[in-house]
Amino acid sequence: MPKINIETAPVRTACMYPPPYDAQCAGRSKISLGDLGHLSQFGVNLTPLSPGAASAHQHWHKHEDELVYVIEGEVMLVEDDGETLLRAGDAATFKAGVENGHMLVNRSDQEVVFLEVGTRGEKDVCTYTDPDVDMQLVNGGEGWKPFHKNGEPY
Amino acid sequence: MPKINIETAPVRTACMYPPPYDAQCAGRSKISLGDLGHLSQFGVNLTPLSPGAASAHQHWHKHEDELVYVIEGEVMLVEDDGETLLRAGDAATFKAGVENGHMLVNRSDQEVVFLEVGTRGEKDVCTYTDPDVDMQLVNGGEGWKPFHKNGEPY
Q1: pLDDT at A1 exceeding the cut of 80
Q2: Which of A67, B47, B60, B138 has the greatest CB tally within 10 Å of its CB?
């Protein structure tokens, strides 16, 4: 049966950011619905964020589209050019190649739960727009790897 | 801003099935969140189904992964090999090439709302497994077109 048993699904808290940037992942977890259903073309994560937690560092993807849909609670969408409150039932899209770094931050006192959808392309580059974050992630075809912004590997 | 204004978004009720199969689309509507956000790699539809309505005829995709997530209400997942009730918070996946026809049917007395996610591939074939449905949909690279099961176009 293709139904995902979410109650018994593994919850992923691992973070691919190197220190000290991995501290941004505290309070974030993911249930990878698409992976659990053996999908390979896109990922769909059910992502709870605790109060004070962030989804990521502000970033944009060169090749992969993204979409988020808020299931419960509310969360601030923080972009390079401003902030937008997203409430349950709201959706936002991030088209590949649009150079506007984004992240979701839970500034409320309740957990927020959202779905995040992203393409699973063969290659991609994830650029972090915060000048204090000296990191980029590159998927050259064998999975994501972290690099400094000058191209040196971590 | 990448937030989708769902309240003012166009609601799509068009059905690409030829008569008499288009009757299956009654009571179904879609808000195409991904299209509204100009995404091209996958589609995400917010799909309300009225009591008695179905999402589609039972089908499977040759090349495109699919995932559904129930936002509110409950809906019966009807497959060639059985039925599974999906409630709010449940998800199900349909991997490309798995020859098990599926559709969602609202047998409750309340509207159900779900998200459906599907890859936007260049080419695909959608096969309908109900022997009473003499239809297949083929996207040869220029959009979906309906054919009889013997290959003759509608």
Answers
A1: no
A2: A67
**Nearest residue in B to A35, CA atom:** B93
Contact A92, A67 (CB under 8 A): yes
Partner-chain contact A4 B91, CB within 8 Å: yes
Could you say which of B33, B39, B71 has the minimum Cβ distance to residue A95? B39
Q: Do B82 and A1 touch (CB under 8 A)?
A: yes
Q: Does B94 sit within 8 Å of A36, measured CB to CB? A: no
In this complex, do A3 and B91 lie within 8 Å of one another by their Cβ atoms?
A: yes
Chain B residues with beta carbon closer than 8 angstroms to that of A115: 69, 115
ipTM here: 0.96
- Compute and round to an integer the Cα radius of gyration of chain B: 15
Class at the top of the CATH hierarchy for domain A6-121 = mainly beta
pLDDT category at A50 given cuts 50, 70, 90 is very high
Q: Is the pLDDT confidence value at A132 over 90?
A: yes
Instruction: From residue B35, give the alpha-carbon distance in Å to each of A151, B4, B41, B43, B115.
Output: 35, 10, 10, 7, 14
pTM exceeds 0.95: yes
Q: What is the DSSP string of A9-70?
A: SPPB----SPTTGGGGGTTB-BEEHHHHTT--SEEEEEEEE-TT-BSSSSEEESS--EEEEE
- Quick one: fold of B6-122? Jelly Rolls (2.60.120)
* A42 contact residues in B (CB cutoff 8 A): 41-42, 65, 67, 117, 119
Could you give the CA distance from residue B8 to residue B43 in angstroms, rounded to a whole number? Answer: 19
CA A113 from chain centre, in angstroms, equals 13
Task: Break chain B into its structural domains and give their ranges.
Answer: 6-122
- Measured CA to CA, the distance from residue A101 to residue A83 in angstroms comes to 11
A-to-B residue pairs, Cβ atoms closer than 8 angstroms: 134
Name the residue of chain A whose CA is nearest to B98's CA. Answer: A2
Residue A65: Cβ-neighbour burial (10 angstroms; 0-12, 13-18, 19+): buried
